[in-house]
Structures are given as structure tokens and as C-alpha cells.
């Protein structure tokens, strides 16, 4: 499956963005996740969602501010990001896995990333 992430941009601290991840194929059998990588840092997971959307996990750094969702009928996953902070600045990636979990090594298919920049 090929993934295309979009929706990034420049936003002020406290603002919101909604990221989308559109797949070229059916995503209904894949667990999906969002990850980010800031300059000079390792890629980190921030949220993941099970294939049916009934299980969701969030990193402590984004819990309560970000919401992951998916629309299998549209082969699309979303990340609603609210109350953004400058430390959220990173390239955001979406990914797909046959398993469920947020660990980076579980994911075999990756989108190209979309830049999110939060100004203070």
C-alpha cells in the first residue's frame, strides 16, 4: 500500500491542524499510525489506531490534544491536532502495519511526510 500524508503547514502556538493520510489501496486490514521526526531527533510514534478503529493509543506528549481517526471506506486516516505547541514542530509521517501497536519497527509502509511548524 502507498500512503500520502498532507495537511501540514505553519500555525501559531495554540492553533490547530488536521493531517490526512490517503492510501492507494484498501487500509481496512492494517493498523495505522502517525509518527514525527524533529530536526536532530529520532522518529517517534505519537498515535496509532487498530484496523477497525476500536483501539487508539497516544504518546504522553500529545494525549488530550491530538485525536487519531480513520475512515476505511475512504482509505483515509486523520490526525486532528489542537493546542499546538512549538515542540510539536516536526515532519509528520503516516504508516501502516499488519499488526497493532505504536512501535516504529512494526510498520512496513510509510508515507513521505508533511511538515508541521508551530511558531511561538
Category from helices, strands and their pairing: mainly beta
Low-confidence stretches: none
The overall pLDDT, averaged over residues, is 96
Shape: globular
- What is the radius of gyration computed over CA atoms, rounded to a whole number of angstroms? 13 Å
Percent strand equals over 45%
Estimate the helix proportion, in percent.
under 10%
Notes on the structure:
With 120 residues, the chain is mostly beta strands. The chain is built from no helices and eleven strands. Strand 7 (66-71) and strand 8 form a beta hairpin. The chain is globular. The mean pLDDT is 96.
Features:
120 residues, 7-stranded mixed sheet, 4-stranded antiparallel sheet, 0% helix
Question: How are the elements arranged and paired?
Answer:
Layout: E1 3-6, E2 9-12, E3 17-23, E4 31-37, E5 44-49, E6 56-58, E7 66-71, E8 76-81, E9 90-97, E10 109-110, E11 114-119
Parallel strand pairs: 2-11
Antiparallel strand pairs: 1-3, 3-8, 4-5, 4-9, 5-6, 7-8, 9-10, 9-11
Summarize the structure.
With 120 residues, the chain is mainly beta.
Amino acid at each position: 500500500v502507498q500512503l500520502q500524508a498532507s495537511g501540514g503547514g505553519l500555525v501559531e502556538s495554540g492553533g490547530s491542524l488536521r493531517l490526512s493520510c490517503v492510501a492507494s489501496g484498501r487500509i481496512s486490514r492494517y493498523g495505522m499510525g502517525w509518527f514525527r521526526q524533529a530536526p536532530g531527533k529520532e522518529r517517534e510514534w505519537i498515535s496509532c489506531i487498530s484496523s477497525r478503529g476500536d483501539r487508539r493509543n497516544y504518546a504522553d506528549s500529545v494525549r488530550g490534544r491530538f485525536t487519531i481517526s480513520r475512515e476505511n471506506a475512504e482509505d483515509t486516516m486523520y490526525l486532528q491536532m489542537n493546542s499546538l505547541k512549538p515542540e510539536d514542530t516536526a515532519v509528520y509521517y503516516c504508516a501502516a502495519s499488519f499488526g497493532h501497536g505504536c512501535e516504529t519497527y512494526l510498520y512496513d509502509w510509510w508515507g513521505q511526510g508533511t511538515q508541521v511548524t508551530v511558531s511561538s
